[in-house]
Amino acid sequence: MGLLFLSAMKPTPESPIGIFDSGIGGLTVASAIHHQLPHENLIYFGDTAHFPYGDKSAGLIESYGVGIAQFLLSRHCKMIVIACNTASAYAFKAVRAKVDSSVEVLNVIDPAARAIARNYPTGRIGVIATRGTVNSSIYPRKIKKLSPQTEVTSLATPLLAPMIEEGFFNNKISRTIIHSYLSKKSLQEIEALILGCTHYPLIRSEIEEYYKGKVAVFDSAELVALAVQESLQKSSLLNLGESIGNREFYVSDLTDSFSSSAAHFFTGEVALQKLDIWT
Ligand code: DGL
Question: Residue 185's domain spans which residues?
């Protein structure tokens, strides 16, 4: 298993929550956590230098995830949230195994799988996600384990994350691409659709517009925020302070398009700072 990354300090309620993604899509999860738990200190890391993870090999994604976890532990995080479905699929086990057990590691797939199993014990559910997430079969595996009667059909939608990261949403181009994916045969006659990528909450309204209320749309950001709260409560690590938490946002490469899109993802001002953890 190799070396365990030890947290230099015992986690306290004031310790930050570390959140990471391949880019700025995980800011949708950071935003939900901030709204649910405004007193928490947050450190966000977007691995924009390696974006997208969706088409990378399992081994590479695992090594990126482990490297970022090591950085977050060096900043004394009390919890690590893998705010990327692709990294949750390929790096969660390695990160969990490497990180000292006093630090909880959460992924974005388990809370959505639990919600689907609870709400749709039978019936047909669709998942849209990166190629990597779809090829891992993680959603069907996790949902079927909890609810064997639920039928799960997945579609890789590799154009969506780069399109959103470049700021293309709520326009003609995004609508055309979204409609062409959602009209594919494999997604017909579904009762609910999981947005299996942390970028997709930004196109949720366009997806809902396509379905006109006939299909329920699930994104995991709020479900993850609730899971974070529950876990911190359990370990008595919830920050009960009065002031609004401190937020730091790092990316491994900074371009104008990342800077200008970031505010949409966090619903508010975000000052991205470039930080090279890789050399
Ligand atoms: N945000 C990532 C996810 O949730 C997808 C983007 C990528 O391909 O890196 O899967």
Answer: 110-219
The atom number, within ligand 1, closest to the CA of 51 reads: 9
Instruction: Return the CATH number at 167.
Output: 3.40.50.1860
Neighbours of 185 (CB within 10 A): 8
Kindly report, residue by residue over 191-239, the tens digit of the pLDDT: 999 999 999 999 999 999 999 999 999 998 999 999 999 999 999 999 9
Q: Are residues 119 and 210 in the same domain?
A: yes
Let me know whether 61 and 90 are in one domain: yes
10 in a structural domain:
no
Instruction: Return the best residue to mutate from 20, 21, 31, 154 for the ligand 1 pocket (most ligand atoms within 8 A of CB).
Output: 21
Short-list 105, 93, 90, 82, CA closest to 136: 90
As a whole number of angstroms, the distance between CA 140 and CA 45 comes to 28
Task: Determine whether the shortest distance from the Cβ of 84 to ligand 1 is under 6 A.
Answer: yes
69 and 130 in a single domain? The answer is no
Examine the domain organization and report whether 240 and 209 are in the same domain: no
What is the reported pTM? 0.94
CB 162 within 8 A of CB 52: yes
Which residues participate in catalysis according to the annotation?
84, 197
Condensed to tens digits (0 to 9), the pLDDT of residues 1-16 reads 456 665 657 899 999 9
